[in-house]
Amino acid sequence: MKQKLLALCLCAVAGMSGCSGTGTAAYQWSNVAIGGGGYVTGMVYSEAEENLIYARTDIGGAYRWTEDEQRWVALTDHLGGADWNLIGIESIAADPVEANRVYLMCGTYMGSPGAVLASEDYGTTWTQVDMPFECGANQSGRGVGERMMVDPNRNSTIYMGTRNAGLCVRTTTAEHGQRWKASRTREIISRKTRLSAFCG
Question: Which domains does the chain show, CATH number per domain?
């Protein structure tokens, strides 16, 4: 028994000696999948493209499902420390006509202005439009449904139901998601002056 144990130890030492090479190992860096990073508050399925799915979280950004790779891709990792409040995604609007277009309504807590992120390439790159009103992706009502949607009959029009500035609408064809104004619905007209300050 002792002889077998000694032979086993000698084999182990011999094996380790072969690992002490002087070559430099090549490293490949990539994102690490972390099992956390926010509560998934909503999922949006594209009506324009099969298997195109977006997910939003209260404090962990937005994600897109990639069918070919069978994994979720982070879409808001470009946001840094200065934009910490935009990591919470209150709503996602996937364009039902042009599948490449997607919009995020960002703002984790009330008390800091939110923003809308607009993309023309499935969320690979974004145009940020700062909003003077607040969003609350990590506050009460975060999981009750989407607050933003693209008009399927005229996809240059986007509606956004805010928490404290009523209904806002973006209708400028040449500026997808970049210019917003207060809606002129009967519900909002009584607060027109206040809303114009927020959305105009």
Answer: 38-199 (2.130.10.10)
Summarize pLDDT for 11-50 with one digit per residue, the tens.
444 444 444 555 677 888 887 766 666 789 999 999 999 9
Query: What is the overall mean pLDDT for the chain?
Result: 80
pLDDT tens, position by position, 51-62? 999 999 999 999
27 Cβ contact list (under 8 Å, min separation 6): none
The answer to whether 94 touches 44, Cβ cutoff 8 Å, is yes
Q: Which residues pair with 134 in a beta bridge?
A: 113
Calculated CA dihedral for residues 6, 11, 12, 13, nearest 10 degrees? 90
